[in-house]
Amino acid sequence: MFLPKYPENPTPPPAHTHAPASPAPVRRSMPPMSVDHKAVIALVVGGVVLTALLAAVAVTAISVAIAAVVLRSLLSQHNRR
To answer: Fewer beta carbons within 10 Å, N or C terminal of the chain?
Structure first.
């Protein structure tokens, strides 16, 4: 019931008789890219500096948060007495 039905006399596919309209474009290889070492060094140093600044901001934020919690705890105990 669900089996495919094949034609009784299969015909071969037609031969390719189409000619290209124009020849394929010539691919030229790109010249080797020269990497400026000063630019690479500047990029790496910039990344290190930005990472250090981000770490400094994170450490400062954590220490301020801890100090705020400690001060809040000390002040709430002082108000209870």
So the answer is: N
DSSP 2: -
Measured CA to CA, the distance from residue 46 to residue 39 in angstroms comes to 10
Give the number of domains in the chain. Answer: 1
Q: What is the reported pLDDT for 24?
A: 73
Phi-psi region of 61 (alpha: psi -120 to 50; beta: other; left: phi over 0): alpha
Picking from 75, 77, 55, the residue whose alpha carbon sits closest to that of residue 67 is 75
Structural domain for 44, as ranges: 38-81
Query: What amino acid occupies position 47?
Result: G
Residue 17 is assigned to a structural domain of this protein: no
